[in-house]
Design a protein that fits this description.
Length: about 350
């Protein structure tokens, strides 16, 4: 059985205000009193009221996510895995999450309202753009934030966590070239976002290093959905000189590309090779003894957990320096790749 603040104060014979200040580390309470209060709280199984704690500390114990209504995130199931990871970290730390879905033109005002009303202690910024005003806005508002991704390679003024997208796509493109593939397609994400731009850069850099000319007719950039992969793969297979391999920005378009290949009665890994970025999704796994796809693998749920951890640390330790984490993806060989049938 637990007690509340009033009962704890009565057991100690001191005021509720003093007990609250002792539990929340206020400096005007002596160390002797703090020790006495905490010992009694443990003995009586005191459970603090979350509402009271928020009032005492001036913190909302909530982190925010602001998502435009038209944003690709709202139709992308990968986002749910990120939120699941962030939610686990927040729950363990005693934080709630608030997601505001707003028209894009109201995004800036929403950040301002969240800051002014103190409804959140900090925010996670998703899918940074090549030209993104949110970072400047949040810095002006002096609200703690963490970016999942980064706007520029030399960004050091704020905390971010990113995957080395350029290196990942350079690596898998070199792998395909080593297997004899010279006509290689790219099914990328929307290239106004920095992750997709870096993946395109890595892809093109590998082709350039190996002196292979890129065919612009084999390069696409859209929302990363299964129908996108299916439709673009069908178009490429109908070309007079179709690609012998394709690089996909997500396992979702890779599944669509695989469906198109199988409908054409072609064998993946033999007639055409497919490699993809794999976000290690809870609802769609690539973890068989021999994985379906050759992939560069990184867990988006783990990224969500870490972004929330970084943000909570920034909230609770406001004078610490920004943290920058660039994760390398793991290369996993699967059944979807093999040698090109013939040299171009």
């Amino acid at each position: 059985m637990s007690v509340n603040l009033k009962q704890l104060a009565q057991a100690l014979g001191i005021s509720q205000t003093t007990v609250s200040r002792a539990l929340n580390g206020f400096p005007e309470v002596s160390e002797k009193t703090r020790h006495k209060v905490r010992a009694m709280a443990q003995q009586l199984n005191y459970v603090p009221s979350q509402h009271a704690t928020k009032l005492a500390t001036g913190k909302s114990k909530t982190i925010g996510h602001v998502i435009p209504q038209s944003d690709h995130l709202m139709i992308n199931p990968l986002f749910s895995d990120f939120l699941a990871g962030a939610g686990e970290t927040c729950s363990r730390a005693g934080y709630d999450m608030l997601m505001s879905v707003v028209p894009r033109e109201q995004e800036e005002q929403t950040y301002r309202n969240l800051f002014a009303s103190k409804r959140v202690d900090g925010v996670i910024v998703h899918a940074p753009l090549v030209k993104d005003d949110r970072v400047t806005l949040l810095q002006q508002l002096s609200i703690p934030f963490v970016v999942h991704g980064r706007c520029a390679d030399d960004d050091t003024s704020y905390t971010w966590l990113d995957v080395n997208n350029r290196r990942s796509f350079e690596r898998v493109t070199h792998l395909l070239i080593d297997l004899g593939h010279h006509r290689i397609g790219l099914l990328n994400g929307l290239e106004n976002m920095t992750f997709a731009q870096r993946r395109r850069t890595g892809f093109l850099q590998a082709l350039s290093e190996r002196k292979i000319e890129m065919d612009q007719g084999l390069m696409f950039a859209q929302d990363m959905t299964e129908p996108y992969g299916y439709n673009r793969m069908r178009e490429m297979l109908e070309l007079p000189s179709p690609p012998t391999a394709v690089v996909c920005a997500s396992i979702l378009p890779a599944m669509g590309a695989l469906r198109a290949v199988q409908e054409a009665r072609l064998e993946p890994g033999k007639d055409i090779s497919i490699v993809t970025h794999d976000d290690v999704l809870s609802f769609l796994t690539n973890n068989r003894d021999v994985p379906i796809f050759t992939a560069v693998r990184s867990s988006i749920k783990t990224a969500g957990m870490r972004c929330a951890e970084l943000l909570i640390n920034e909230i609770e330790n406001p004078h610490t320096d920004p943290v920058h984490e660039l994760w390398e993806a793991e290369l996993v060989l699967g059944a979807s790749t093999g040698p090109a049938l013939s040299a171009d």
